[in-house]
Design a protein that fits this description.
By secondary structure, this protein is α+β, with helices and mostly antiparallel strands. It contains 26 helices and 37 strands.
Length: 1051
Amino acid sequence: MGAKLKKIKKIISFICCFVFVFCSCFSNISFAVESNNVAVESKAEQTIPRYNYKISFETNDELGAGYGYMGGEKQTPKPPKPKKEFTEDGKYGRAIMITYHGFHIINSADRWGGVYYSPMQPVITLNEGLEPIPLHDYMKEVQIVAFWAKAPYSPYLGNKQRQFDIRIQTNAGTYSANAFIDNTGEWQYIKIPMANFRDSKRGYIVDNYDEITEFTALLVGIPYGEKYFGRSPDESTYNDPWIEPLYIDEILFDRSTPDNPAITLPSLGEEEYFSDAELVDILVEGKSVPYFEQQKNNEVIHVEMPNYYTAQDIKDVVGVPRSPSTMGSKTEQIKTGATTQFIPPAEFPGQGSLIVTAGDRITKKTYVLNFIKRYPLQVQKDQILGIDIEGQLTSGYKNILIPIHNEGEVNLSASIIAAVSEIETGKVQSVDFSTVSNIKPGQTESFNLQVIVPGESQNYNLSFYIWDGIDSMNSIADSIIVGQPSKMEDSADAIKNSRVNINPETGKIIIKGKNSNYSRNRKATLLVLKPEKTVDNLLNGMNPAEVILKVDEAAFDSDGICIFGYYMDDQPTGTYTARTNLDGAVIEEKFFFGNPQEVKDGIKAFNEMAEDADEESMFDLFNQYKNVFALSLELYDWLGEESLYQLNVLKQVMAVDTYATLQDIVSVFNKAVVLQALNKSESSTDVQNLLDNYNNILGFDISSKLYTKNLSHRSQRESVNKKISELTFDDLETARLIFKKLVLLQAINDVISYGEIYELLSDEQNAELFDEEIDFTDYNSLKDKTVVDKKMADYTFNDLTEVVETFYKFVKAQKEIENSGSGNKNDNKKSPTRGSNTSVKTNIVIDSIPDNTPILPIHDKKSRFIDMDSVLWAQAAVDKLAELNIVSGRNEQIFAPNEYVTREEFVKMLYMASGKELLTDGQCVFSDVCTGAWYYDYIVSAVKNGFVQGKSDGTFGVGEKITRQDAAVMVARVMKQLGIAIEEEMHESFDDDSVIDEYAKDSVYTIRRIGIINGVGNNMFAPKNFATRAEAAKIIYDFYSYINGLPEGGK
């Protein structure tokens, strides 16, 4: 085979029964080094991180390779030299694929293998920008050779592992180590300690580093037999060889040590962590900075230090525990390569900074650290007597001494409360209180506390709360807890917008607080006092067990919320006091608690109260239990003390035969109160208050399309509310029905165009609101239905019965005219008489107009333009906008409603309708907007006000027709810039929703929700259709009406 093959044979003379692959091209991928406890530097320069050496086959496809066979007699002629084989299906993209080729040996017993060969380079560059280093120097630092490997599943191996060899060839021997992978067919990460590599003659490689001056090859060998294939070859394998490739990817020479881990650049697809510059913690004297997690996203992180520290002390004790971690990453890396640089404060107190540079050496983050003096009073935890605060809590009497040292410069006072509480419920079983009013600078005072821990001590914890005083309740040190913390959590039965919330049936109390500002006092404190007890009782020496019901501390979450929770259990009925300190100020709130047994007694008493009981008895019973039941009494009190309205509430509550639970009573009471509040309402404002605060009980349908589309203006809603306030209802069901009828009546009276009349009358959702189904047979037979629609649109109705009767009379009149052939000449005829009121089976009365009321003439509304007949639904909008000089016709008589609108035309109309002042001194940023053009100032003004943004290519799109979806986007953006908020709610999608572009969807459904834009029929929106002048005018006018609080159509 020539000189080269002779050299190969010499190299493989130590190897038998293997196929060997040599990898010579090494990637420049590496990882920045960071130790587990990085010493933070105070110098301006950061140390250069150490990098690992890794072979990535993504870029190393130029493997120089010779190939040779080992073993017995070879084929004649010789088999072709195999090609370098790669696969794109590696663990990380490309990987090398090693396939046994030893079947070319004629005698199966002598089949050994072949080898790839290429000399190693004597020096390597670990990362861009670094100086090359000798390979043999680097390899002597390597601790682990690691790589990803995979082989096909083999039924012959079963649960056994495949075995192959890794060999490192040097000038002083070839050192091999076994490698194993599970027979799963999946990628596995293999780690082989460098200390495992051994030469049969020279021993272990790590013992021979002094003799090694050159590393020449890395060989991967596949044994052709039981160890790898699970079976032995025979004559059949000559023509039918076993092809079970071994795949290798990402070969890493890792020189990490426990004290100095090296850094490896990320593999393909895992680059994100290499730009991570986030710290997981900051250490002071080896301990984590308290509340770092809550502060880490703040502009400044506050770090409390001992009062006696100097700036030099801070420089010496501040560090980081580790760089951002990628533990669990598929790369098996635990370091991102980030490094840190600490710049200490010039003086203390003062600010310093911690600069984190990510592994990519590009991404940086600076943490500003504000070093402040901690509170001078410090608990000497290592000197506490009477209990082991680090051990298990045991039962029995505890006599405890807790020393507190004053490291400050002024006299300070402190108090400690010790509480034994149930872990599950938070209930306090034993409590004691101790105070020292004056601790002098440099002195230590001990606090004596005595408590009793019940049997089964594992169910309890003992907590010590260190405050500056029992009255001020400022936490001056973290509480000390012996045993497991209590498990009480927030609950769904906690009502929002209230601090103290009680579930009267379970006795569970939830107390919430909020602290919007950071301060040194990061813990909220709680002290609940028993009925009729005060803090003064404690200060005057009363037994703490007779005064304190609950004591606790809670940290604030990232939103500044703290939550306390506990059970009252068998506490007596009474008014308790909850004192909380959220940020240096005590908030005191009294709350009434009814014992659960009293709740049961109250339910029984309500069930036994006779329906026909006298008023005094009902009021007495209700007043006895209203606080026990924790009823919401604000609206009840508004009804007036022992007023007729309150009496009606109690009658409705007492009318129920049997209550099974307290919730049943609460439900009936709430509905009765809301009903009577509705009956007491005297104005639109009173009704609106109920809609805003109690509609979950009132149940008026204000989310329906009928309400949101047709009552979008405040004046319309006020009109309906005023009519409701003038009525009296027997039940909420009737009130809800009447509300719907009044909404429909308002919608009919406020139509902007006569085309909406038929839509409202024929809508199936409105059918239940009429006394009987409307018959449209005669209407549908008319040749000219618009005559009826116009007259209905011009009429103002008092009730829905009148609507139906008038509709029938107009239809009948028009039919007679059409049948007589005389044409429509009824403009001077009288309108039909008005009908009776809406029929409702209640005591509600809506005044009707007598049948002998004079009949009013009906007049068609004539447009100023003569070409509006095909778009009568837009006629009123066009006329009104023309009156306001927002739109104009092509001439005095022609509007051209079906022509398309350009983008600049729509912007002009929209801007004028917005009421904003036109700017005449601006500069335009769009390449296609010509200075001096009629639209110039409108586009410039719209851009400056944030109304439009133009197109991605830098143009505005002058001369382009505007699509319906772009019109919706512009309208929605203008409303946002005007500060008009539109509540989000669930909506029914258009059938062509998928055609609406994502950037336009929110806008389309937002302005649809308030009735500014609608579909084109059959629940289609047609987003890509161009908007006509009539459609644009209707959209602009509805927008104008909405922002100005006008009824649609300007009626």
